[in-house]
Amino acid sequence: MKIALFGSPGVGKGTYAAKLEAIYHMPHIATGDLFRAEIKQQTELGKKAKEYIDKGALVPDEITTGMLKNRLDKEDCQNGFLLDGFPRTVKQAEALEGITTLDAIINYFADDEVIIQRLSGRRLCKKDGSIYHITNVPPKQENICDKCSGELYQRDDDKPEAIKERLEVYSTQTKPVLEYYQTKGIVHRVDANTSISEPNNHIIEDTQKILDNLKEE
Ligand code: ADP
To answer: Comparing C-alpha atoms, which of 109, 111, 147 is closest to residue 127?
Structure first.
């Protein structure tokens, strides 16, 4: 299955993708993670991308699409993948058509207040990139990753000015991608308003129902 997870920054795509990756054994390919790895290694691509990311802007399509194509060409993606954070512009969606064909888009949605609360409380592990939230998904020990004991940090683009810009970019540049795929009839909606830490949330179960149906088709 070739799946793209869609939704506003902060809706929780990375968190859901990590859970789905463990259930379906599909590689989780997040363009944001690929960029953060390039930045950490101080590559030329990373240096260029950082200028845009820190402002909350999108990295230019040519850079992003080239980087993603290299990743999708690898052996582990040949039987399917979970894309997270791509495509984010209609141009990227069109470029993806030349690389592969998606089976489904899972569109996670949540109210604006929920999104802002999730983004401002998000913390990441410096070592393995695991995602936490100071109140919704706190680590067992403050500021320490449960899995690898790495130190947690707040992304520069999770600070208020960049958050505002990212939400603006989402509504002007990324939302039209949904319309692009709606005409192809492959968009499925999942309500992500309830926090994943609440016992009554159905986010992963609802996604599984969609993916299991696809598998049977
Ligand atoms: P979030 O979904 O919370 O915004 P990501 O980790 O997916 O976080 O992305 C962080 C940043 O990386 C984005 O704000 C953008 O600058 C850049 N980025 C990620 N994916 C793309 C993409 N497909 N096209 C352009 N820029 C991207």
So the answer is: 147
